[in-house]
Design a protein that fits this description.
about 140 residues, mainly alpha, 8 helices
C-alpha cells in the first residue's frame, strides 16, 4: 500500500461528510473574502494585527484556504489538506485571540474565538479520521485495494 492509499484510508462514518462540508465551506468562503475585501479581511487586516509582510502573507493564506477548503469539500487529499488549515488556525488564535484574552478577559476571548476553535477542532478531526466513505479519497482507496 503506497502513502496516498494510507492517507486516503478511512473508517470514519458517513456523517463525516457533514464535518467536511461545513469546514471546507468556511475555509473556502473566508479565503475568497480575503481577496474580495482586502482592506477588511486581507492585507489591511493582516497589517492591523501585526502579521509581517501582509502583502505577501494575506494572499498566500487566502490561497491556502481556497485550495484546502475545496479539497475538503470534495474529499480529496483530506488529511493532507487539514494540516495547513490546522497551522492557519493556530496562527490565527495566537495572533488575534490570545491578545484578546490577555487584554479583554476570558469571556470576550471565548466569544471571539468560537469559530477559530471550531475550525481547528474540525480540521484536527479530519486529520485523525480521514474523509469518510462519501469522498474521492475513499473512492481512490477502494480502487487501490
Amino acid at each position: 500500500m503506497d502513502v496516498l492509499q494510507k492517507l486516503a484510508q478511512s473508517h470514519a462514518p458517513r456523517a463525516t461528510f457533514l464535518v467536511r462540508l461545513v469546514t471546507g465551506w468556511v475555509f473556502l468562503s473566508e479565503g475568497i473574502q480575503k481577496f474580495l475585501y482586502p482592506e477588511q479581511l486581507g492585507i489591511g487586516r493582516f497589517s492591523r494585527i501585526g502579521i509581517p509582510s501582509p502583502e505577501t502573507l494575506a494572499p498566500f493564506v487566502a490561497t491556502v484556504e481556497i485550495v484546502c477548503g475545496t479539497l475538503l469539500l470534495i474529499g480529496l487529499l483530506t488529511r493532507m489538506a487539514a494540516v495547513p488549515l490546522i497551522i492557519n488556525m493556530l496562527v490565527a488564535i495566537s495572533s488575534t485571540k490570545i491578545p484578546i484574552l490577555l487584554n479583554e478577559g476570558l469571556w470576550r476571548a471565548a466569544h471571539e474565538s468560537r469559530t477559530d476553535l471550531a475550525m481547528l477542532c474540525c480540521s484536527l478531526f479530519l486529520l485523525t479520521v480521514g474523509a469518510g466513505p462519501l469522498s474521492l479519497d475513499y473512492q481512490l482507496y477502494q480502487r487501490g485495494r
